[in-house]
Specification:
The protein has helices at residues 5-18, 29-36, 40-52, 77-85, 92-95, 109-125, 128-131, 134-142, and strands at 56-59, 65-68, 169-170, 175-177, 187-189. By secondary structure, the protein is mostly helical. The strands form 2 sheets. Strands 3-4-5 form a 3-stranded antiparallel β-sheet, covered by helices on one side. A two-stranded antiparallel ribbon has the order 1-2. It is elongated. Residues 144-181 and 184-195 have low confidence and may be disordered.
Length: 195
Amino acid sequence: MRLSTRPRYALRLMIEVARTAGTEETMSLATVAEQTHLSRGYLEQLTVALRAHRLLRGVCGKGGGFSLARSPEEITVRDVIESVLGPINIVECVENPSICAKSARCECRVVYLLINKRITEALDEFTLADLLDVERVRCALAGSRIDQPGTARKPGRAGAGRNVQGKGKQSSAGVAHTDDGGCPGGWHYDRTEDR
């Protein structure tokens, strides 16, 4: 299974625009095209879908360009991908079982449902803000955890509101910044399930 260029380029576009979040600045497509080495024409096509899903806002006139419609902490990778592809759906019967006469007794459908669920969970784990911090993503990828004696942990999805052991800030991806070592830059990824 592969992601086509459409969602990958949409994500790159959104990450570039997210760099201006929290400022009054907008980012022109010419600048995005230059920084990402993507065709401006292709980027223009992507902005239509991103604006329609209220992820991107366009500003006309001199100094115009694009800005995020919401904060980078509120826009997940899934939001971006689904805005240009539609709902994540690895097999048509996952979302619409009525299209297949065998779906009620299909042995494989359960696996397809599980795969679909895990993909959407993974895409929901990270926001644009998370992707702007390379160390945070590397730490999450490495699966580093903050280990404290007596804390039982079972693997699971990280996300907003997850319990992060230790002190410090928590991101929407369950990544906490602490000053006690661990991942590069002091970032720790906690995959603890809510209890």
